[in-house]
Design a protein that fits this description.
The structure is a homodimer of 160-residue chains.
Chain A (H helix, E strand, L loop, with lengths): L6 E6 L12 E5 L31 H18 L11 E2 H12 L5 H11 L2 E7 L9 E5 L1 H6 L11
Antiparallel strand pairs in A: 1-2, 3-5, 4-5
Chain B binds a DNA duplex (27 and 27 nucleotides) through helix 3.
DNA sequence: CCAAAAGTGTTAATGTTACACCCATGC
DNA sequence: GCATGGGTGTAACATTAACACTTTTGG
């Protein structure tokens, strides 16, 4: 695929990963909407899979996948990755669904809202959802520019 | 050096890092007590340096160092790295000094104490500091076993 | 009018920050 | 007895968690 934003997760370079030789793999992770991206290589049994129902993988590939998923769960809590997976204008429900899916938790709707609004990075577009069989939600846009300018504290607090 | 525990920080593989060819570097970070470890290679101008007063570095090595330092500052807040740098039995003052040095912040003594004791991973050895020109502090030991068994929550809270 | 999800506020619990006094040791 | 840093508790504040009712739309 072209034009996908990748972030590096980790390099895997243990001896013995591959039976034939020492192989170093650098794993990257990306959030992409599979509706909007086609796999270019259709050979080699290349498919999309659910993370919950994965068949056996070769070598240490399962470990790599697990490392990526854990990385993602942590990363998305600390950085605004998720928006690349949503349309430019999205409802809070879509955003929450995304977080719930990735983190595999249920979140309180009101507290989720408060949290995001308190970060002050979502802009009301003034538009509403359409074609929903219930009260339409407002559509928001993520303000990347504001996010960039925001000063991030180095100190979060010791906790382990 | 032998026998130092390394943790991987990041791989650097941009094109153009090195003028001659594409070079991939995998950076690792370790906390070691330079009193207890000798540099084995004395050629090649290999020395210890303070991070605060570093001369120019070749290629993108400064970026690598910065990435490592930032990684360390984050990592030490979430994982018990620091103890590898202290003697097995250490005073809380030593521990706090370590955190203050790495994070480059001043911390409140009482709150630091409370924080660590609330994690319930420090064991009182019953011993005291010696040869200090003031009231000696108690010596503690970090309980790695308890730390391992501790269940870590996946969910910390969205914040960016 | 019914179903479905949106929108909203308050309270309790928890965690974090700020801060001051007495104590034990070496000199 | 003085200087130095060790040890401790509390109150204000900030953050998070829990929780229920009204509103808007489509059918």
């Amino acid at each position: 695929m072209d034009d996908v934003y990748l972030e590096q997760v980790k390099a895997f370079g243990e001896t013995g990963r591959h039976p034939a030789a020492r192989v170093v793999t650098i794993a990257y992770c990306s959030l992409i909407n599979i509706e909007h991206h086609q796999l270019k290589i259709l050979a080699n049994e290349l498919h999309w899979h659910r993370v919950t129902t994965l068949s056996d993988m070769a070598f240490d590939h399962r470990q790599i996948l697990d490392a990526c998923y854990e990385w993602l769960q942590k990363r998305i809590q600390e950085h605004p990755l998720g928006f690349s997976l949503l349309p430019k204008k999205f409802s809070l429900r879509e955003l929450q669904n995304l977080y719930e899916a990735i983190l595999d938790v249920k979140l309180d709707r009101r507290n989720f809202r408060k949290k995001f609004f308190s970060m002050d990075l979502l802009e009301d577009t003034g538009e509403l959802e359409t074609d929903v069989p219930h009260r339409p939600g407002k559509l928001y846009r993520f303000n990347y520019e504001k996010y960039q300018k925001k000063e991030r504290r180095k100190w979060f607090g010791i906790d382990f």
